[in-house]
Amino acid sequence: FPVDRIRNFCIIAHIDHGKSTLADRLLEMTGAIAKTEKNKQVLDKLQVERERGITVKAQTASLFYNHQGQQYLLNLIDTPGHVDFSYEVSRSISACQGVLLIIDANQGIQAQTVANFYLAFEAQLSIIPVINKIDLKNADPETVESQIEKVFDIPREECIRISAKLGTNVEQVLQAVVNRIPPPMAHINDPFKALVFDSNFDHYRGVVANIAVFGGRVKKGDKIVSAHLGKTYEVNELGLLRPDEHPTQKLFAGQVGYIIAGMKDVKEAQIGDTLYLQQQPVEALPGFKPAKAMVFAGMYPMDQSEYPGLRSAIERLTLNDSSVTVQRDSSLALGAGWRLGFLGLLHMEVFNQRLEQEYNASVIVTAPTVPYKAVLSSAKLIKNRRATQKNMVYIDDHRVMMKYLFPLNEIVVDFYDLLKSLSSGYASFDYENAGYQAADLIKMDILLNGQPVEELTTIVHRDRAYSTGKAMCEKLQDSIPRQMFEIAVQAAIGSKVIARETIKAYRKNVLAKCYGGDITRKMKLLKKQAEGKKKMRRIGNVEVPKDAFINVLKRK
Ligand code: GDP
Ligand code: MG
User: Fold this and answer.
1) Is 81 assigned to a binding site?
2) How many whole angstroms from 18 Cα to the centroid of ligand 1?
3) Contacting residues for 407 by C-beta, under 8 A, at least 6 apart
4) Which is higher by pLDDT, 515 or 7?
5) Is Transmembrane among this UniProt entry's keywords (predicted)?
6) Of the given ranges (80-84, 250-254, 368-372, 394-398), which has the lowest mean pLDDT?
7) 420 or 288: whose pLDDT is higher?
8) Ligand 1 atom closest to 13 (CA)
9) Rounded distance between C-alpha atoms, residue 471 and residue 298, angstroms
């Protein structure tokens, strides 16, 4: 296929502005899928995407489009809109020369519209602004065009007004893709060189890599090398994604497709890797900036016997989602496990759900934390919790964009929900890392009859210590059974106790029930009690069931 008739583009936008719906129409109009009422967000293939109604993985589809008597190959990548998945957007952009920037005709420019615009702008891609949902009663494309001129400095004449739902003017979008986006700078006569921009693990076929061919050609049977590990593989299968796998004989410069080459280990064909022919080595492409984890949580198997299974599930899923960082960790209470880093709370929830749905794994997830740097000195005394305003830009008469510096732990858990409800859904929000700041954080211990419980020591902000400590004591009180003596459950900072609950004494005589009973029944009961004890951990003189740790450490 001649390179000058190839276009690679992705669809970017704020969440819910209609990316996946536009992708459906483009697929239908080019004959990739049949026209039926049932086609709703067909590229959202994962169960988690269908259940939540959001895109979490970028998806690729190759379309054939006839324009003025010529056939064009259009490679489309639909991307997620939520800030937690912006890593998917930046990866997709590296395989493209242009973007469709979708903006809802009713909502106008929102936080992720701005964030995604800058990703495309910095990568110097052609940007086609598309105003969607013009069929809505309150649609106001005029105002949105003014916003686009003002905020992005793109002339209003370049905007295309469409209804992705009804298909209105979508043909114009296809024409703009052909006319305004340049073909890829890839040469068929160069040595073969491809970027692995996505990858997933198939149970039977091993690693299936999605590649963008930057030069040359590759065919079945070729010996290829992955630059990352330097290992050689034979190409078993390759083809286009339309959007389902469609095997072909060769892939050429400028094309986007998939390749299967007998890679059985998830460490092979990592996202960002370069592939080349064994006899024609090339310099590796720069790859991707590693994602910066913002939220950390522990993940543990329900039972230690499930550790190996969970390990391979996590490895396979992180092959598909390389923005997750994984470190081995262990907890006195929960045994061997991992500490995983995510880009946000939604990302963490989606990852957890995918582990359960796609890998049948059940896990204990601990309460999320944000990264801290500890300096062991009195400099922590500096108090700084308030957000500081950085700047403010009026988008139009009704909308303002404000920048603040926030401590991450103030925004990570419930800030977004709060902002949405306070603004009746009008405000939107995006964030980037601004580095570490000094804060008044303290170490809080949990004590059982005066003995510290190492597993439950936490770092909290001084202002939150009381409420967190109290909540932890209450949970422990509920999950530790009464014992022969009274148990004091305390939260303490240094030697100062800040919260306390009491578990009353209870004399539990399991043999009392068998008064006069036969000896075998007594033995059985004693054995059962001994087995129960094995699941206990002794802290000082207190027996703590494993469940108690799980209840306190787990997310609600
Ligand atoms: P994405 O998050 O950007 O991928 O958005 P979706 O494609 O999932 O669409 C979000 C919602 O907007 C869905 O309920 C769509 O049916 C709806 N939607 C998309 N395009 C249009 C449109 O042109 N008109 C109307 N009225 N609704 C639309
Ligand atoms: Mg979507």
Assistant:
1) yes
2) 4
3) 384, 385, 387, 437, 439
4) 7
5) no
6) 394-398
7) 288
8) 3
9) 20
Q: Please report the pLDDT score of residue 308 as a whole number.
A: 93
> Which atom of ligand 1 sits closest to the CA of residue 162?
23
User: Does 80 belong to an annotated binding site?
Assistant: yes
| Nearest residue to 114 via CA among 126, 129, 124 | 129
pLDDT of residue 374: 47
Give per-residue pLDDT as tens, 166-221: 999 999 999 999 999 999 988 899 999 999 998 888 888 889 999 999 999 999 99
Ligand nearest to the CA of 102: 1
What pLDDT sits at residue 367?
A: 76
Q: Ligand 1 centroid to 16 CA: how many Å?
A: 6
What is the per-residue pLDDT for 490?
A: 94
Can you tell me which residue has the tokens 């009690």? Answer: 529
- Ligand 1: which atom is nearest the Cα of residue 11? 3
- Residue 378: the pLDDT is 31
pLDDT of residue 455: 75
State the amino acid at position 437 in one-letter form: Q
Ligand 1 center to 81 CA (angstroms) = 12
Burial letters 484-523, b for 16+ CB under 10 A, else e = eeebebbbbbeeeebbebebeeeeeeeeeeeeeeeeeeee
Mean pLDDT of the chain: 83
Ligand 1 pocket mutation pick from 10, 11, 12, 16 by most atoms within 8 angstroms of CB:
16
CA 172 / ligand 1 centre spacing (Å): 18
User: Is the per-residue pLDDT at 437 higher than 70?
Assistant: no
DSSP 187: B
How much distance in Å is there from the Cα of 86 to the middle of ligand 1?
19
Residue of 19, 21, 41 to test ligand 1 pocket, by largest number of atoms within 8 Å of CB: 21
Q: Report residue 267 as tokens.
A: 């460490």
Judged by its nearest atom, the ligand closest to the C-alpha of residue 88 is: 2
DSSP state at residue 109? S
| Through-space distance between the first and last CA atoms of the chain, rounded to whole angstroms | 54
What is the C-alpha separation between 429 and 437, in angstroms, rounded? 21
What b/e sequence results for 30-62 when a residue is b if at least 16 CB atoms lie within 10 Å of its CB, and e otherwise?
Answer: bebbeeeeeeebbbbebebbeebebbbbbbbbb
Higher pLDDT, 223 or 394: 223
Which pLDDT score, from 0 to 100, does residue 241 have? 93
Residues within a 6 A CB radius of ligand 1: 13, 15-21, 41, 55, 81, 132-133, 135-136, 163-165
